[in-house]
């Protein structure tokens, strides 16, 4: 049944997610521009990112347990609805004139709670809808959709914030959530056997959380993959959040240049996802992830050494980094979906998002203070070098390199 109908289901799923991602990207970039223009502080941008990530990191492991117990389609619909409601409240507050930083942090935190349920539920549903042989291709197409949203979103967000007040720009996100929820009505997502037979009550939440952790720990290669990817995430997130500030402070750009950098990053991810969506590479997924770390590190490292007059080269390196990030994300997702049983995927993905976010939050705090003290270019140089070294270390870790051979 999966073999014959999975393409139709994904066509509907991708349609809804496309509109949701484009509008969310528009709103997120508009908020970044608004904060950058209002404050010009790296720490404010870092705190905004923390507010949007910390709740997800804290409740992620608990959310994963319930994702594996609940109907995943309903979970995604409720999560989208909750995020839309939080955005509506933020829009109303701005309309009434309450433009305070603490209110933005609060609403970003509440939206993060919805994401804690939606993202793992989405990733955990994919192996239930498509053949395992297509997982890397699907991950690539997902990256294409995200990349198009990263291209169209900043362009739309930059245009919207130039013509409309921030409170009205936020309404775009609500429209996207409504479309995403509507398409889910026409999709049936099977319940995995383990989730269907589970009779766990609230007293077994901790045991279910530990079972998700043990699912990863028992596989040494998968454990190293999680560890290295978490370290890379610790480095990537601060750099991507600080794209606008790097553009303004070092390259002396404005709104146009900030939009260009976001678009070139999206173009790179679009190219990487398109390659994986059309062409099935002969390289093992582990090798693809490791090479991606090397390319990402080189791109950020080199960007930090550029002079302020080399903005075009900065855009080119950002595009290269986007290609590498697309390969890295798609390869990691496909490996986890292959290695872990469907009934455990909600817990495992939720746990990974938490493990990935928590060190990233620490990195954002440290990076914000470091940028204000030593300059943003040296942050790019040092974190780029760290990512490159992780790529080298990945190639000399035997259990990690044997990972996909064990699947075969």
List the helices and strands and how they pair.
Elements: H1 2-39, H2 42-69, H3 72-95, H4 101-129, H5 135-163, H6 166-169, H7 171-184, H8 193-197, H9 205-217, H10 220-241, H11 243-250, H12 255-278, H13 285-305, H14 311-339, H15 345-374, H16 376-395, H17 398-401, H18 403-407
Helix pairs in contact: 1-5, 1-7, 2-4, 2-9, 2-15, 3-4, 3-7, 4-15, 5-12, 5-14, 9-15, 10-15, 10-16, 11-12, 12-14, 13-14, 13-16, 15-16
Give a description of the structure.
- Residues 195-200 have low confidence and may be disordered.
- This protein has a single domain, classed as Growth Hormone, Chain: A (Up-down Bundle), CATH 1.20.1250.20.
- The chain is mostly helical and 408 residues long.
- The longest helix has 38 residues, at 2-39.
- The protein contains 18 helices and no strands.
- The protein has helices at 2-39, 42-69, 72-95, 101-129, 135-163, 166-169, 171-184, 193-197, 205-217, 220-241, 243-250, 255-278, 285-305, 311-339, 345-374, 376-395, 398-401, 403-407.
- The two termini are 24 Å apart.
Compute the number of strand runs: 0
State Rg. 20 Å
Query: How many individual helices?
Result: 18
Q: Cα distance, first to last residue?
A: 24 Å
Q: What can be said about this structure in brief?
A:
Helix content is 85%, strand content 0%. The protein has 18 helices and no strands.
Annotation keywords:
408 residues; mainly alpha; single chain; Growth Hormone, Chain: A
């Amino acid at each position: 049944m999966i073999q014959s109908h999975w393409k139709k289901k994904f066509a509907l799923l991708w349609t809804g997610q496309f509109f949701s991602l484009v509008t969310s990207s528009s709103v997120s970039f508009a908020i970044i521009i608004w904060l950058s223009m209002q404050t010009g502080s790296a720490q404010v941008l870092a705190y905004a990112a923390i507010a949007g990530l910390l709740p997800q990191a804290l409740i992620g492991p608990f959310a994963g347990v319930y994702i594996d117990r609940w109907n995943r389609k309903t979970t995604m619909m409720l999560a989208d609805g909750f995020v839309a409601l939080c955005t509506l409240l933020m829009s109303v507050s701005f309309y009434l004139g309450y433009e305070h930083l603490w209110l933005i942090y609060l609403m970003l935190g509440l939206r993060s709670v919805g994401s804690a349920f939606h993202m793992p539920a989405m990733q955990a549903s994919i192996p239930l809808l498509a053949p395992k042989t297509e997982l890397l291709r699907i991950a690539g197409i997902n990256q294409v959709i995200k990349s198009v949203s990263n291209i169209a979103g900043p362009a739309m967000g930059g245009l919207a914030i130039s013509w409309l007040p921030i409170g009205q720009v936020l309404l775009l996100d609500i429209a996207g959530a409504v479309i995403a929820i509507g398409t889910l009505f026409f999709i049936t997502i099977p319940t995995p056997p383990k989730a269907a037979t589970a009779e766990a009550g609230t007293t077994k939440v901790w045991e279910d959380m530990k079972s998700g952790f043990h699912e990863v720990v028992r596989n040494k290669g998968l454990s190293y993959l999680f560890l290295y990817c978490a370290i890379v995430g610790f480095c990537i997130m601060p750099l991507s959040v600080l794209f606008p500030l790097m553009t303004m402070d070092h390259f002396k750009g404005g709104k146009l240049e900030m939009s260009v950098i976001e678009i070139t990053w999206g173009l790179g991810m679009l190219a990487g996802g398109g390659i994986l969506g059309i062409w099935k590479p002969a390289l093992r997924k582990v090798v693809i992830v490791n090479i991606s770390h090397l390319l990402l590190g080189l791109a950020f490292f080199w960007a930090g050494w550029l002079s302020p007059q080399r903005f075009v080269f900065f855009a080119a390196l950002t595009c290269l980094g986007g290609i590498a990030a697309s390969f890295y994300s798609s390869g990691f997702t496909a490996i986890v979906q292959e290695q872990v049983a469907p009934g455990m995927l909600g817990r495992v993905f939720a746990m990974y998002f938490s493990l990935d976010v928590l060190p990233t939050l620490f990195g954002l705090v440290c990076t914000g203070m470091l940028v204000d003290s030593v300059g943003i270019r040296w942050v790019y140089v040092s974190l780029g070098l760290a990512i490159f070294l992780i790529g080298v270390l990945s190639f000399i870790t035997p259990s990690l390199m044997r990972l996909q051979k064990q699947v075969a």
